[in-house]
Design goal:
CATH architecture of the largest domain: Roll
Shape: elongated
Number of strands: 7
Low-confidence stretches: none
CATH topology of the largest domain: PH-domain like
Strand order of the largest sheet: 1-2-3-4
Strand content: 25-35%
CATH superfamily of the largest domain: Pleckstrin-homology domain (PH domain)/Phosphotyrosine-binding domain (PTB)
Number of helices: 4
Structural class: alpha+beta
Helix content: 25-40%
Number of domains: 2
């Protein structure tokens, strides 16, 4: 299985722990944000061509759009799932300054499943991985190649 991110170590890694794969959400999950941005830009340029706005409003709107794009890219880029031979680490970047990190030991996982949410998920090969534990479910959305990640987790938890 190819790694989505080319690193073999991470902060907090145990001495006897091996990284199996690192998964980032499929970049297509950003389409909602970019669709809203494109619609907003279209309305903005229509207003601009009809002389409804002045130069300062133009600069303000473009700055806000730039901030939205940077925010979406930061949240996507820094939100990852690290699967090792001992645990699954979830790193969720919520915004510029808020990050959540959770670890689930592979020995605590009771059931694993995956689903393809719709026809786009089937065509573009992304889905949702669900790992059930006593303390709750780990749900990983927009995962590329969910069947491979599912099989990897199955093989890793088989010995536990």
């Amino acid at each position: 299985m190819s790694k989505n991110i080319l690193i073999n170590t991470f902060d907090g890694q145990r001495d006897d722990e091996t990284v199996e794969t690192i998964v980032r959400k499929n970049s297509l999950f950003l389409w909602k944000f970019f669709l809203v941005m494109i619609l907003f830009l279209a309305l903005f340029f229509v207003s601009l061509s009809l002389n409804f706005v002045n130069l300062y409003v133009c600069a303000g709107v473009l700055f806000i759009l730039f901030c939205i794009v940077v925010h979406c890219l930061i949240v996507w880029y820094f939100s990852i799932y690290i699967i090792t031979d001992q645990r699954v680490r979830t790193i969720n970047q919520k915004n510029f300054f808020i990050k959540e990190v959770y670890d689930i030991e592979l020995s605590k996982i009771q059931h694993i499943g995956y689903k393809i949410p719709n026809i786009m998920g089937y065509i573009l090969n992304y889905g949702t991985i669900i790992a059930q534990t006593d303390s709750g479910d780990l749900i990983m959305h927009y995962i590329p190649e969910p069947d491979k990640i599912y099989n990897l987790l199955q093989n890793l938890t088989k010995g536990n």
